[in-house]
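Thread: quick sanity check before group meeting

JM: Hey all, I'm pulling together slides for Thursday and realized we never actually wrote out the predicted structure for the chain we discussed last week. Dropping the sequence here so it's in one place. If anyone has concerns about the input, flag it before I start.
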Amino acid sequence: MTGDHNAQGAASGCRSDADHTSFAAAAVIAVKMLNKGSDGGKMVFEPTLMKLEPGDTIKFVAADK
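JM (edit): ok, ran it. Output follows.
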């Protein structure tokens, strides 16, 4: 394979590193590690479900409840 990758990528529809989305808008999501949940369960994480995007960071926070 010869030639410039970016030139070939543009012709084939491939994206170069410069085209990738920036993570500047990434979120930090806190998840509580509880020894008792609101439903009475033991050793739970709240929230139990969340939607993440590429680049988001999950921060686990120990908390008594």
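AS: nice. Residues 19-63 form one domain. Residues 29 and 51 are 10 Å apart (CA to CA).
JM: adding both to the slides.
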